[in-house]
Amino acid sequence: MRTSRPRSRTRAAACLIAVAMSLSACGADRGTPTATDGVVEVIAPEDRRDVEQFTGDLLDGGRFDSTSMAGNVVVYNVWGSWCAPCRTEASALRRVSEETEELGVRFVGINVRDNDASARAFEDNYNIEYPSITTDTSSAAVLAFGPALPPSAVPSTLVVDAQGRLAARIVGPTDYATLTTIVTETAAEADTSQ
Amino acid sequence: MTDLDTKTTASGHPPPAQAAPSWGWLRWAWRNLTSMRTAVVLLALLALAAIPGSLFPQRNVASDPAAVINYMQDNPRISPWLDRMGMFDVYASPWFAAIYILLLISMTGCVLPRSRRLWQSVRSDPPPAPRNLARLEDHRSWETTREPAEIIATAAAHLRRKGFRVVSTNDEIRAERGYLREVGNLAFHLSLLVLLVGIAAGKLIGFEGRVAVAEGGTFANDLSQYDAFTPSAWTDVDDLEPLSFTLEEFDVSYQTSGPNLGQPSEFAARLAYRAGSGEEQTVTVEPNHPLNVNETKFFLTGNGYAPVVTVRDGRDKVVFTGPVLFLPLDSSYASDGVIKAPDAQPTELAFEGFFLPTADVGPQGPYSRFPDALNPQLFLTAFTGDLGFGDGVPQSVFTLDKDDLTQVRRDGQPFSQALSVGETMRLPGGQGTLTFDRVSRFANFQIAYDPGKEITLVAAIVLFVGLTTSLIVRRRRLWLRLRPSTDAGTLVEIAGYSLTRREPPPHEIEDLVAALGGASPPTTSKDVSA
Amino acid sequence: MIFDEQTFAQLSNGLVYSAIAVYALALLAYAAETAGQVAGATTLVADSPARSRLAGATTMVAAPPSRSRRLGAVGTSLTVLAFLLNLGGVITRGLAAGRVPWGNMYEFVLVCALAAGAAYLAFLSRRPVRAFGVWIVAIVLLALGLAVTVLYTPAGDLVPVLDSYWLVIHVAAAITAGGVFTVGAIATGLFLVRHRLERRGTTQAPKGRYAATLPTTRTLEQVAHTAHIFAFPIWTFAVIAGAIWAENSWGRYWGWDPKETWAFITWVCYAAHLHAQATAGWRGVRASWFALAGYAAFLFNFFGVNLWITGLHSYAGV
Question: What is the ipTM of this complex?
Answer without folding.
Answer: 0.83
